[in-house]
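Listing S7. Sequence submitted for prediction.
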Amino acid sequence: MTTITHAFCLELSRIVTVDEARFEYLSLSGENRERFHYFCTNPDCRRSGVRVFGVNDYRPLEDTEVFKDPHFRKSRDVHAQGCPWEAEDVAPIQGDGETDDDFRQRVAKAKVSDFIERFTPPGSEAGKDVAGNSRSTDPSTDESRRNTHGAPSQRHHEPGMRSTTVLDRLVTSYRQARKRLTSDELRSIQLHVVGMGQIRLVDYFKPLRFCSLETRQRVIFGGARFIRRWGKGVEFRFYDKLLHRREGIEREHYPVTLYVSPRLVEEARHSNYFEEILKEPEKRRYFTIYALSHLTFSAKHESFSLVVDDLKSLSLLRGPDKEP
């Protein structure tokens, strides 16, 4: 059966992905939080009260062996006839006029439960595509007004092409692709980035150790250790170091830090979400950081900085606990 990627959340009164639900839940005050409840997105199923369960929809993302990515799970409730989430998976067949490359990409994407094909980076004109065409909303849910995550209306509530403005959701899609696809399949699939166009998924995500001051418009990622909190802010230091050249001469490797200022956290609408991720950070062996950002170098401090201007451009995954 088709993997459920969207569900109707009773508490939010709208259709959500599991990452949107997780974000909204963790953004609530800790004293007022209760687990969300979900129904199937199909109108007939919803009227009949067909339940869907959220798995790990109440926990921050983690980069550990035992943690499973957030997802929706079917209940034993019987879905209405014709519900798209009850469609049986069938072996893909190459369509007439479909190129071999397009067919290979389609087969590879089908192995990822919620593969994101279109991503609108934070700060882009989310309501327009590359050509500047306006994007209609779904009047049945009116998500353009209700979605406090700042994402545009999700028009693809049923199996098919999926798009997002949420970096966490894109990161989850990328991590699943790395786990489930062969190296050839992973290198073949494309991502449409609004404002940039088509790019290979593996090229849009760039390990920090391969980055430089010229790296732009990429999701830079790497492992880092927690250094200290600065009020509501935080500082991390990456395990990887980078070479710096002055006047064409290679110099030694310099450390790379990420500093998130208290002001950046305080001004964010989802500061509670950020605080939830950073509960007792000193107990974590490491964090895995994904950021839509760029690097700067300070000659005075002899170090690189990964610069983040918006918390929506930052995705933090907690590593395992330190040994007692």
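Caption to Listing S7: primary sequence and predicted structure tokens for the chain studied. The chain has a mean pLDDT of 82. The chain has two domains: 6-204, 211-318.
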